[in-house]
Hints:
Blueprint: H1 2-24, H2 37-43, E1 49-50, E2 52-54, E3 57-59, H3 63-75, H4 92-103, E4 106-107, H5 112-134, H6 142-147, H7 155-166, H8 168-182, H9 195-213, H10 221-229, H11 246-250, H12 253-353
Amino acid sequence: MANGGSKGGVGTSGANGSRNDLAHQGKKKGRGPTRNLKLAKEFKGGERYEIGWLNGRPIGPHARDLINECTKLVRAQHNVPLKFTDWKKVPYINKRKLFDKVLEYFKVEGRDQEVWRQMGSSYSNYRDSLKKKWFKPYGEATEEARANVPPGLEKDDWNCLVDLWSKQDYMDMCLKNKENRDKNNIIHTSGSKSFQQRSAEEVALKNLTTQVNEGALQISQDQMFVEVFGPERHGRVRGYGAGVTPTKLWGSSSSRMYDLEKRLQESEQKRLEAEQKHLEAEQKRIEADAELKEEVKHLKSMIEQQAIEMAEQRRHFEDQQASQMAEQRAHYDNMMMQMLSYVTSQSAQSSSDH
Length: 354
């Protein structure tokens, strides 16, 4: 029985190995996991990168660096284990630590929700890639898939993923999502760039073209392309094929640098002038507000003083009224006493005569 078990074990192992080889046979070697070495190399403790935002998505020259950094962080299992059913289940403390790491390279204060949304997308995409490469090829042979843990993954995390993907309700949900995606007639065809990034680039190119047409800038169409989409690779110019270099097309780097510096100075001068006008307008507004507040204060003081004077006049008038009424009452009482005395004396005299 021992020998039989051994043979059975060898046979199973061989079957697993064959299935594993079959699952990954003919697949071209990919680019490997994102490590974002370019960011670490270029940054070197310098000033953090600015990130623009459009509809909650990062845009600008360093948007791709931010996305790659988010992907790198969520793929590190010591940051975010894969055992959670989805990104919403990841504890806040894990998300907070990841966001603090992003702050080391990017100026994204106050954008934690947007950054976490990008991390959630990277987290989901990573799990989908694992499922496509290491789970689906085994079909219904779930245990064989479980036995072949992808490189770099903890076995416990892989088991959690296999358990999740094997659940009937999860498979039903995936099927429903696929049917919904098939109904979508707006297909994303802009490669690794988001629609927001493409839109921002088109707006920037249009604005730059408008400035050139109005004479505000002196720049060629080719230079506008670089201004918007970023610098070329060394010695290459996009869209011109082999043999065309930046020097041949636009001149030496020193002349281009001079032009760029001149344009930068002009732009900075315009910015300073606009800022000065804004400060002057703000100062006038502050002074006007101060004058208005002083006038309101003066009017309030006048109203209060008038109220005091009117109250004093009313009190004085009421005192006079009371005094006059008291005098009239005393005069009336005195007259009544005199009349009573007269009537009494007359009555006494009449009695005496009789």
